[in-house]
Amino acid sequence: MYDIIGDVHGYADRLIALLKAMGYTKKNGVWQHPERTLISVGDLVDRGTGQRETVDILRAMHEAGYAHVIMGNHEYNAVGWVTQDHQGNYLRPHTEKNKSQHAAFLAACEGQQGWYNSTIAWFKQLPLFLDLPELRVIHACWHEASLATVKPFLDSNNALIEEAWPLSGDTRQALHGALETLTKGWEVALPAGYFFADKDGHKRYRIRTKWWSETARSYRELAVGAGPKGALPTQDIPGGALPGYDNKKPLFLGHYWMRGTPHLLTPYIACVDWTVVEPTGLMAAYRYDGEQPLCNSKFISV
Ligand SMILES: [Mn+2]
Fold this sequence. Notes:
This is Metallophosphoesterase. The protein has a domain at 2-141 and 244-301: Purple Acid Phosphatase, chain A, domain 2. The chain contains ten helices and 16 strands. It has helices at 12-21, 51-63, 73-82, 96-101, 103-109, 113-125, 144-150, 164-168, 174-184, 219-222; strands spanning 2-5, 25-27, 30-32, 37-40, 67-69, 129-131, 136-138, 187-189, 196-197, 203-204, 206-208, 251-253, 269-271, 273-274, 282-288, 299-301. The longest helix is centred in the first third of the chain and has 13 residues, at 51-63.
């Protein structure tokens, strides 16, 4: 069965510790388990000191058939950093904010042009999601309408086709919004005058939502992740309706900077990103053995 691991963000030492804790061993240079397949929810890069090592570990596992790796928003942005639209603009604008978010990866790639080119090419081949018989995996938001929008732009492995990349930055195209939703989540603009500062001190005027929630209605209840919740309005989000989830199969996500002891979001949804990037955070996984609903006791973390 499957071990689904959270965002690594270049913390290769924590990744290795988690692999060891789950009984994986390194043979012929490749981490592997005799009975289990690893699944990474993406976000391999940015922030930590083991950028290249993280990619090398997971790419080797992927290519040897011991792991699935899907695209996180950081891989999506890494491709966009070096890929231009039809007007010659980078898909990921080279602003100071974007540059600082990507700095650890770019620094690790300095003088490593061959490795960098090869890694970007590999990122482009990563599927946006997995829909296996037993489970689904996506980085941020399983949204049927967005999945339908991107479908004509996907290859048989659910990776974006080459022609889709230059179009993906065009905010007038439905493709752009759909990719943003799938990889970055369902975001909602705050009412005029409201903002919060994220963990890097950048002002944010939109919140990431608990898009799966069937009960929460207000901005404050629906906000997920970093940011002082107390600063958010208690009024309901106008129009209200969030996509929700159909619970047809267990779903695994990364992305959300969860804090505390790993636990399920709902009986059918597990986020495996428990914020390894912070000193008190965890590198976590969910060890899936076919159970429905999911179970809090199946999390493991280091
Ligand atoms: Mn992440």
